[in-house]
Each structure stands twice: as structure tokens, then as C-alpha cells.
């Protein structure tokens, strides 16, 4: 199968890559002086981005400029020093370059067969965290994509260890301050609504 129409030449790859790098450097250089968020209305975004499925490809540089102006220009800078809601990623240039390497080399770290090197890095780093947290040598873990998947993973682990995967008579208690991903994870794991007990927290956000 000929994929030549979908590929860039080495010179085109370098040109596009340098444009992306320049955008990133400019972002990190200027982010402190920029507003935390830029947001357009749905009607405005429809006018900018709604179009029929294209019949022909576009020049990568032109697409990049539209992304810069209309897509990235209408989003919240979660790496901004005044953004205090949550931190889903490293939010710095080194992290961005690491993500680019992982994406570009198409790393899959699900098994040792496909990725002995990346998997060993995960094992070593998890062990560093174990030591820093003062956990016993028997402690372990794994990296996941974010907090919601982490909550799902730990609840699945608890279901297996505490219930031997039999949820027939199980009841789960949690406070009304618990993150919404917990309830979603419990539903995914098969817990019925009648098995969930959401308890009110007191003025200090504690369970009574």
C-alpha cells in the first residue's frame, strides 16, 4: 500500500517540527503574561471551525496556524501559574518533549515483550516513589493516565482483594465530598445504586 501521500519528507518533517517547537517556546515564554483562559461561544467556534469533510489535504503549516489561532487560542492554560484547579500533566517544556518522544516512537508499555526499556523505567520510578513515601519493599504500583483511571484501578483492586470479586452483599460508603469519578468507577465495576451510600460531611468536610 502506497502511503507516500500521507508522509512528509525529512525536510518537511523538520520544518513542521521547528514550527511546533517555536510555538511551544513562545507559549512557555509568554504564558505568565497571558490570561489564564480564552473562551469563545459555541456559535463563534462553529463559525470558525465547522466545515464539510475535506476532499483534499491541507498544507501542514496552514493547519498549524489555524490550530494556534482558533483551537489553542480558545482554551484554558492549565500550566498557567494562576491556574489552581488541577494539574493533569507536567506542564513544562521537558514534559512536552517527553510526550513528543513517546508519541513519535509509538511507545506501548503494556508488556515486557513490546517495551522492556520503558517498562523497566516504570518499575524503577515506582520504586523511587515507594522509597520516598516510606513504604515497605512489598509495595508496588503502576502509572496510569490520570486520577479517574487511578480511582477505577484502585477500586477494582480493592474489590478483588476484599470481596474476591463477589459484590453480592457489598456496600460502599463515601462522603458527599468524594470525587465524581468514584461513583462512575463503582458503576463501571458493577456496583448497583442500592449498594452505594453517600454520607453527608460536616462543616469541616469530615464524616461524622
Question: Which helices and strands appear, and what pairs or packs with what?
Answer:
Elements: H1 10-30, H2 42-49, H3 60-71, H4 93-104, H5 116-132, H6 147-163, E1 172-175, H7 180-188, E2 196-199
Parallel strand pairs: 1-2
Helix pairs in contact: 1-3, 6-7
Number of helices: 7
Largest sheet: 2 strands, parallel
Total beta strand runs: 2
Low-confidence regions:
none
Output mean pLDDT. 91
Specify Rg, calculated over alpha carbons.
23 Å
Detailed description of the structure:
The chain has helices spanning 10-30, 42-49, 60-71, 93-104, 116-132, 147-163, 180-188; strands at 172-175, 196-199. The chain is mainly alpha-helical and 208 residues long. It has a two-stranded parallel ribbon. Helix 7 (180-188) links the parallel strand 1 and strand 2 (196-199). The longest helix is centred in the first third of the chain and has 21 residues, at 10-30.
Amino acid at each position: 500500500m502506497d502511503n507516500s501521500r500521507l508522509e512528509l519528507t525529512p525536510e518537511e518533517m523538520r520544518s513542521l517540527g521547528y514550527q511546533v517547537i517555536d510555538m511551544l517556546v513562545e507559549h512557555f515564554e509568554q504564558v505568565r503574561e497571558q490570561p489564564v483562559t480564552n473562551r469563545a461561544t459555541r456559535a463563534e467556534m462553529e463559525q470558525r471551525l465547522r466545515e464539510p469533510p475535506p476532499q483534499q489535504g491541507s498544507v501542514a503549516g496552514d493547519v498549524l496556524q489555524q490550530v494556534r489561532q482558533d483551537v489553542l487560542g480558545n482554551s484554558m492554560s492549565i500550566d498557567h501559574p494562576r491556574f489552581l484547579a488541577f494539574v493533569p500533566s507536567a506542564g513544562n517544556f521537558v514534559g512536552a518533549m517527553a510526550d513528543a518522544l513517546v508519541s513519535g516512537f509509538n511507545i506501548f508499555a503494556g508488556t515486557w515483550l513490546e517495551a522492556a526499556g520503558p517498562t523497566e523505567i516504570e518499575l524503577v520510578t515506582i520504586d523511587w516513589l515507594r522509597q520516598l513515601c516510606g513504604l515497605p519493599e512489598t509495595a508496588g504500583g503502576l502509572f496510569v493516565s490520570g486520577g479517574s483511571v487511578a480511582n477505577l484501578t484502585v477500586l477494582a483492586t480493592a474489590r478483588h482483594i476484599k470481596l474476591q470479586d463477589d459484590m453480592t452483599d457489598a456496600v460502599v460508603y463515601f462522603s458527599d465530598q468524594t470525587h465524581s469519578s468514584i461513583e462512575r468507577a463503582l458503576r463501571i465495576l458493577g456496583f448497583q445504586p442500592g449498594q452505594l451510600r453517600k454520607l453527608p460531611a460536616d462543616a469541616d468536610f469530615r464524616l461524622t
